[in-house]
Amino acid sequence: MSKLGISRRTLVQGGLGLTVANFLPGTTPFAQAASMEESTIAAAKAAGATSVNGMIWSPYLVPMQPVIAEFTKETGIGIGAVQDISIFDAPQRAMAEALSRSAQFDFIHIDSNMIPSLASAGYLEPLDEYMKKANFKIEAVGDYGSFMTYGGHTYGIPTDGNVHIQYVRKDLIEDPDNKKRFADKFGKELKFPETWEENLRLQEFLMDPSKDLYGSGNLRNRANGVTWWYMIYYSAGGFPFDDDMKPTLNTPAGQYAVDIYLQDKKVNHPEAANWGTPQMIPRIAQGNVVSCQYWDGTAKLNENPAKSKTTGKWLYGLVPGSDFSGKRMHRSISSPLAAILINKYSPRKAQAAYLALWLGSGKNSIPIVTDPVNTFNDAWAKEHMASDAVKKAYSPAGVKAIETNFQVVAPPIYLTGYLEFQDALGKNLSEAYVGQLPAKDVLKKTEDEWIAIIRRIGQSKLKNDLASYKAVMPKRDNPA
Amino acid sequence: MAVAALSAAEAPPQASPRAISRQRAIRRFKLSLLAPLIALFAFLLVPVLLLQLYFSFHQWTVYLSSWWDADYVGIDLFKEVLTDPRFGWATLRSLAFATSSTLGCFVFGFMLAYLMKRPFRGQAIYYIIFILPMLTVPVVVAYTAEMMLYQSGPINDVITRLSGFEFKPSWLSNPNIALMTVSLLEIWNWTPFSFIIMLAGLSAIPKEPVEAAEILGASKWRIFWEVELPLLRPVILLALVLRFLEAMAEFPKTWALFQGGPGSATETLPVYIFMTTWQYFQISKGAAMSYIVMLMMVVIVLLAIQLLRREKRSLDKMYEQSDEPIAGA
Predict the structure, then answer these.
(1) Which of A14, A130, A156, A364 lies in the 20 to 30 Å Cα band around B282?
(2) CA nearest A43: which of A355, A298, A345?
(3) Touching B: A residues 9-38, CB under 8 Å
(4) Residue A29 lies in a domain
């Protein structure tokens, strides 16, 4: 160094100066690391140009198309043949593909709760290596990214958060007359409900069937109703299996959840027993519902004045919790959580995987989750929560509610055989809701059916799965 | 000599070369018609049936191994299915649904066919209108019905206005009437099928017995009850059997509207088999169930064939009797 005429002190000072300058705003770093998106492009280019085929429901695909077009321009990897199958029918089709070890689809877009079943059937390609090559991370809010993992591997890239948030009619609970009547009747303030009991009381108090205004907009049909039951059950401190994979539904927490679940009948529309989203969402947006827990995408619809009569009339927040376990606990739910999974048998799995990563970057997915017409893809990434476009689509309060609920979001049964476990419970809850089964028998009957399922799938296999299930459960009782 | 003469007399007449060639051509034609069906059966249906048979005797779980490693379990799966209360209820629901919808389709189809029996002006337009429901895709029927059958929907509204009293059944959410709702939709959807068959049957009734009854002064009702109806019995039986088999397999409307719910009110055999196989992924149990249902259907078809043959024999006998010359004439 002295030969060059530069002293050690000068060199150290110069180095420090450059390091500091590197962090100053407005200065250009000498060697900037490639962004996640750039790394994905580079890895995809190396995999080679091709067209990938997949199974995806068109309302999900349409808002992705401009983002895919950009990827195609950069890498030559595009979309080929697409089977337009509803997310609700996709599990059956995917399992048929798995049984036949078919290479027809390079990717499938499906409820991520199917990951354990499809991975166990040998259909899924782990994405860890691709993510490493592309320097990619699932930057989801809270622990939500872990929903994509099973057995220590990542198998999916989320495209749709689908978390439940609480919806309460602001105009109704802030109405001075209602406030006074409520205070007179209950000696309490009419406010945003924090527990299931408060929520029921509020719904019952504000409903007015003569004006076609019902207290609840929750679903209670056989296919979806069970989703609501999980929220209540988890928030009461319940978990459906012990460490030995014995069902633990028929417990005080389980009975409490059944009781709250069935009380919804008092405040919901008389036809709710068979209503799904096509019936309920319009009722929420058109002002026929006081309060409910619902998928976050409905906030986009509510806040769209062209489609909703209730724009600006909603409060959004955390779903109710429970003190049943002795401490206040809140649990939201995400189901079906739409994600892109890659077929292990596909000859183009690398290209399909990189396309999935491209679509799953926080930055790239902003236009996807804010599409005003095809509102199926809901916000989920940390980057979404700070985006103005997302705030505009969901309203700032809506985004805040999404972020809050993500911190305590849980999955439904995250095990191999998920659909079977879920339908047994859903069927029995539905039977109780319509009076075909006494409420006290729901959990006993479900446990008996679950024991048969466990025996068939294999107790030891499911015990292994249990670790993945517990790993995706939220780590905190309440949002920060 | 006498024996030889007798043998020659008893021997069938030698067929001419032309007749033999004709018979061969007919046989070839029959074979050519049947060949695609035989090929379809041999290469497509038989392998599937065999695979299904394999699954119904082997317990296989999709999550653990390849299907050829499945454990042989003998008739355990059949026992499991036959002692499964859900399967029993599903069978009862399917039978109730198929019986009610078959009878409904038949009654309305027959009435329409009877109205259309004699040609009249503009008959073709009515014909088209009557068969339109059959041309509607069942899923479309289901979704259209869903929009119309809400408690406050147009159907209840129209009935309320016409009748003057409040008519508010919950077609889609009351478990006590949900299956009946699908049954009514099935009747609407498939009455044209019975209509077409019955119209063909009515057109094929020979005029002579009817004319003879008219000459003898029989009333219209008596002609219908004692002449036309007996002559139509084979056609009626065919219409009922075909419709019943089809109704037992009804899936799209039931699934699109109810998915087995509310509760388990519409969990019919096809719905339960679908759920077992493609929702629970119990391929082996689903295969065993399918075989049991298939055997049930085979028994029904065999009984129907037996009945049809009996009807045909009795009709043939009736015609033979009517052809016999009257004694002393």
Answers:
(1) A156
(2) A355
(3) none
(4) no
CA distance readout (Å), A354 to A38, A128, A158, A357: 11, 11, 13, 5
Give the Cα separation of B16 and A239 in Å (integer).
87
Where are chain B's structural domains?
Answer: 16-74, 76-316
ipTM over cut 0.85: no
Is there a domain that residue A192 lies in?
yes
Q: Which of residues 401-440 of A touch B (CB under 8 A)?
A: 416-417, 419-420, 423, 427, 430-431, 433-437
Structural domain contains residue A21: no
Residue among A92, A223, A416 minimizing CB distance to B259: A223
Of B64, B261, B279, the CB nearest to A274: B261
Rounded Cα gap, residues A310 and A283, in angstroms: 10
Among A91, A93, A36, A82, smallest CA distance to A60 is for A82
First to last CA, chain B: 44
Distance (Å, rounded) from C-alpha A284 to C-alpha B172? 20
**Structure confidence by residue, pLDDT tens digits, B179-234:** 999 999 999 999 999 999 999 999 999 888 889 999 999 999 999 999 999 899 98
Superfamily of domain B76-316: MetI-like (1.10.3720.10)
Minimal Cα–Cα distance from A272 to chain B, Å? Answer: 7
Worst-scoring range by mean pLDDT, A25-34, A169-178, B283-292? Answer: A25-34
Q: Tell me the C-alpha distance between A58 and A61, whole Å.
A: 5
* Cβ atoms of A91 and A120 closer than 8 Å: no
